[in-house]
């Protein structure tokens, strides 16, 4: 009991809150959180508003407004937020849902505060924020014990995988060196949790082309694929260095596939072509995943396939469990590492 009280006093159970919208609702939230009743449970860490250039006062309740929504999307790469409160009136539904769509890649609970004197209903997805009723718009997919459990599985299997894969990677590295000029390893920016870019590691399977940024993917008959590279890709051995990304905390063993920034589908950015694409970033990308073992290996060159991939990733995020992850791992080892869709 003493330990729990000590952790509580140190803020271990306190939720970090980001407020979107410099409004009187935001001011009320800040004042509530500053009160003795709530200051140990919540902390406002930042305020953002798209109208910052037009506001007379770039602060609210003594806190500076740090920027617009793009600034928030950059800010979340270096700050951990537990909850985002969209401090707009209920009547501004259009703006609320526009913001929700723009924030869907952030892995945090997103709520809409509701003034009791305007709407006093018992809502099925309701709750409260420092005494103010809120409507839950989006829920963080993995948090608390669930997040810890997935992290434990990632590091346990990742560490074992690094040991088992080391001899295979060593032989593959020698073959790559003998087959074509260039580095053994291939690294490229990919999008991770909260849309944060990271460098992914793979074994090089193609001749080097500095002009290729990866946005158009690779087709089956790409002439740059080397002889050794063709075998590594079809056997998925080229993916093994991603275990390093897992151990660095940038990826999971199981999750949505890590795509390059601004990936194109039918000459349009994937994020614009498929509306719910950005929500894939609410969890870490994976070496394998529900979409990959259901036909999403290989290139994504049509809107139909792109939409199916997002639907499969969405299903995985909404239905995650350790057993689901184990099922995907087993199917990856037995049927998902090779086949006509793998190239």
From TrEMBL:
<feature type="transmembrane region" description="Helical">
    <location>
        <begin position="155"/>
        <end position="176"/>
    </location>
</feature>
<comment type="similarity">
    <text>Belongs to the bacterial sugar transferase family.</text>
</comment>
<keyword id="KW-0808">Transferase</keyword>
<dbReference type="GO" id="GO:0016780">
    <property type="term" value="F:phosphotransferase activity, for other substituted phosphate groups"/>
</dbReference>
<dbReference type="InterPro" id="IPR003362">
    <property type="entry name" value="Bact_transf"/>
</dbReference>
<protein>
    <recommendedName>
        <fullName>Bacterial sugar transferase domain-containing protein</fullName>
    </recommendedName>
</protein>
<feature type="domain" description="Bacterial sugar transferase">
    <location>
        <begin position="150"/>
        <end position="335"/>
    </location>
</feature>
<keyword id="KW-0472">Membrane</keyword>
<keyword id="KW-1133">Transmembrane helix</keyword>
<dbReference type="Pfam" id="PF02397">
    <property type="entry name" value="Bac_transf"/>
</dbReference>
<dbReference type="InterPro" id="IPR017475">
    <property type="entry name" value="EPS_sugar_tfrase"/>
</dbReference>
<dbReference type="InterPro" id="IPR036291">
    <property type="entry name" value="NAD(P)-bd_dom_sf"/>
</dbReference>
<keyword id="KW-0812">Transmembrane</keyword>
<dbReference type="GO" id="GO:0016020">
    <property type="term" value="C:membrane"/>
</dbReference>
<keyword id="KW-0270">Exopolysaccharide synthesis</keyword>
<dbReference type="Pfam" id="PF13727">
    <property type="entry name" value="CoA_binding_3"/>
</dbReference>
<dbReference type="GO" id="GO:0000271">
    <property type="term" value="P:polysaccharide biosynthetic process"/>
</dbReference>
